[in-house]
Amino acid sequence: MKLLLISANRERCPYPVFPIGLAFLAGPLERAGHHLAALDLCFEADPVAAVTAALAAHTPEAVVISLRNLDNVTWPEGVSYLPALCEVVAACKGRATVILGGSGFSLMPVEIMAACQADIGLVGEGEELLPRLLDSLVTGAPLAELPGVVLPGALRFLPPQTVSKIGTPDRRLFDVARYLKEGGMANLQTKRGCPFGCVYCTYPLLEGQLMRLRPVDEVIAEMKGLVTDHGVSYLYFVDDIFNYPAEFAAQLCKAMIAEKIAINWSAFVNPDFIMPQLLELMQRAGCDGVEFGTDSGSPAMLKNLRKSFNVEQVRSASRMCREAALDFAHYLLFGGPGETEATVRESFRLMDELAPTAVIAMNGIRVYPNTALQRTALEEGLITPETDLLLPVFYLNPVIRDQLAELVTAEAMQRTNWIVPGLEVNISPAMLEAMRIFAVRGPLWKQIKRLGRSHQHPLATGH
Predict the structure, then answer these.
(1) CATH no. for residue 30?
(2) Across residues 299-317, what is the average pLDDT?
(3) Residues 77 and 23 in one domain
(4) Could you give the number of structural domains in the chain?
(5) Shared domain check, 140 and 267
(6) Beta bridge partners of residue 191, listed in sequence order
(7) Which residues, including other chains, have CB under 8 Å from residue 145's CB and lie 6 or more apart?
(8) What is the mean pLDDT of the chain?
(9) Range of the domain at 26
(10) Residue 7: half-sphere exposure toward Cβ, Cα within 13 Å
(11) 170 and 38 in contact (C-beta within 8 Å)?
């Protein structure tokens, strides 16, 4: 079957993200005998025109559209990606069978199918399920009997199945060089699944709670290919947590050291699994920065958010990074259940004490279906069962809601290492575009050390 794979993601802030999900699908689809073409809308000025041209050029029998995110997850300026997705679907309808998938789609598949009127939806990981779905289309077998398949008008579907063996993404259909030039790095995944229970998190919903690890030799081979075939000099591990299991992280780092892979990299880590020996291995393997999903500096808020670590572990992990001269950033979420002015100030005090390279703070926590946060918001009457969660809906504790933006802005502006995307403190789209001119490699938060003072709406116009 002739297929057109479309990456619908057009978000470029803070940097464009390579469509690794579709790259994981390319190999299984080719091995199943399908003929592939791809269209990446990230760099297209007119997405509908680009889709129309691709349909005319490739005349596919089916179009697979991947939706990475529902919106930009930023309060108070939330931007939904649903209208743009519906336009792409409309451009394809009648010219090919339209199949929707991707992590964003999988969060609310029934609702997105109703909104966009696609022909078929596929929930969850597609490496094994999508070839089965396409076979059924050819043979005329009942689609509703397949796991994860959502049909128009259906309110229920069979639960999706996670893949037993994660393969290697095939990036040949996409412009790796463009992402490297404009995003400053390539992305790589070594595992799927999350056994932790943060109240807002969708990883366990999308990938399951059972952690599945890729063989280390396959990961090493992929790294070598990125270096030799694409000239990649910087990697970002997109794993939910790089350093868990710690034994796997250590094994991977030892293999990178043994193979002498000339590459720098950074990753998201959990402070509970940072140990001096592992940190040393990570640095020897090329790591020059880590990001902590800390969420809060308040013991009460860490408990409310069901984090797996405490403040002392955050202190210890930060101290180890400082002693190792390793850049590190803490990500914070303000406004969650139980947040008050006092707990917000606790977070500022802890960050002052830890002195990270950067603090990236978001206000409000996006509410997704089937999470503990959604249940809390329902119990507290902040949303109702009828609330449309396709729109960017955020949990903000009423006690702090009206003063949160002003409080966080005032405090963050007094500190040069804070970045607050929703309030444009030390960040703006114009600033990010300007930084890309200098071909920065790695996370942009590492550049915050160059700031002489904090700015709100830096380089932006109209403020």
Answers:
(1) 3.40.50.280
(2) 98
(3) yes
(4) 2
(5) no
(6) 213
(7) 158
(8) 95
(9) 2-150
(10) 27
(11) no
